[in-house]
Amino acid sequence: MSFQEEKQFVRDLYTILDGTSPDRIGSILSEVMTPDALWRGFHPFGELTGSDALAEKFWTPLRLSLTQMQRRQDVFFAGRNEMDGFTGTWVVSMGHLMGLFDRPWLGIAPTGKMTFLRYCEFNKVENGRIVETAMYFDIPHLMMQAGLNPFPPQTAAHLVQPGPLTHDGLLYDDAPEAEGQATLAAINAMIGDLGTWQSGLSIEDELTQTWHDDMIWWGPAGIGATYTIERYAKQHSGPFRASFTDRSKTKHICRMAEGHYGGFFGWPNFTARPTGGFMGMPATDKAGEFRVIDIYRREGDKLVENWIFIDLLHFWKQQGVDILGRMAEVPRT
């Protein structure tokens, strides 16, 4: 099974898109997207349809703000989507968009310094065109780089996150199909163990079944990254489960893998009702949506690294707290 055509299509698009002037972005996107292509992005963007809306509302303002922008990829792979019976082909890119923060973006005041926007993008490619995209990004992390503090102190650590320990995440050549199948099996086993919160085991025992002991969970700003099963259970998974109830079943739009890498996204992935303090915020007892991308690296038959993108701005807006609107008006420290 080869994904060379789809991979090269996306790589060529990135080369052209990243190298062009902001006023040319709309015309470039119109050549590679179908007229009704659906693009999903984190709050405040939501769902956009077609190249004109995407260029006008997202790409052009971002490129005008982050000048001299570079795309610094850490993971790149392709695969067939398990959620549609392995018929659709998607190409995944994850890393940082880095530039000089020279103009305001989303009301956030510029710094004139290097700024990194964590991103992960899933593109569905059909007949040489993009028909659907999920592009999730960590706006709160960008806010923190601009001197703002959108959330109370997080339980773990947040940094400019590195790529895989093995430095082999750019799968420009196709990986053996059996390796992707093994990665997808590991991801599905993890979802089966952890996706219901009803296994009857301790969190540490649940994790041990599908994760290496020295796992790294590269979480989003506001939660942070954590290392080893014991610290992950203490610094994120345990507090998260203690803060929520009525977790819905997991729903994914795309779930796929190639080689030792795989991932998924949903819109939303699940809903849950906060009944205890989460991220230092009071409980609202109101169900909220979690829009999430997870990217995984497998070693042997277990998962060892996980990069997570969660639309926390959307979740808290549902709870009545406009983090972006509130913080965009605050002078940076």
Write the layout of secondary structure elements.
Layout: H1 4-19, H2 25-32, E1 33-41, E2 46-49, H3 51-65, E3 66-80, E4 89-101, E5 114-126, E6 129-137, H4 139-145, H5 177-194, H6 203-210, E7 211-218, E8 225-227, H7 229-243, E9 244-245, E10 254-258, E11 261-265, E12 270-274, E13 288-290, E14 292-299, E15 302-310, H8 312-318, H9 323-328
Parallel strand pairs: 1-6, 7-15
Antiparallel strand pairs: 1-2, 3-4, 4-5, 5-6, 7-8, 9-12, 10-11, 11-14, 12-13, 14-15
Helix pairs in contact: 2-3, 5-6, 6-7
Q: Can you give keywords for this protein?
A:
single chain, 333 residues, alpha+beta, Nuclear Transport Factor 2, Chain: A, 6-stranded mixed beta sheet, 30% helix
Overview of the structural elements:
It is a single chain. This protein is α+β, with helices and mostly antiparallel strands and 333 residues long. It folds into two domains: 4-145, Nuclear Transport Factor 2, Chain: A, CATH 3.10.450; 177-328, Nuclear Transport Factor 2, Chain: A. The protein is 30% helix and 33% strand. It is built from nine helices and 15 strands. The strands form three sheets. Strands 2-1-6-5-4-3 form a six-stranded mixed beta sheet. Strands 8-7-15-14-11-10 form a six-stranded mixed beta sheet. It has a three-stranded antiparallel beta sheet with strand order 9-12-13. Helix 5 (177-194) packs antiparallel against helix 6. The longest helix has 18 residues, at 177-194. It is globular. The model has no long low-confidence stretch (mean pLDDT 94).
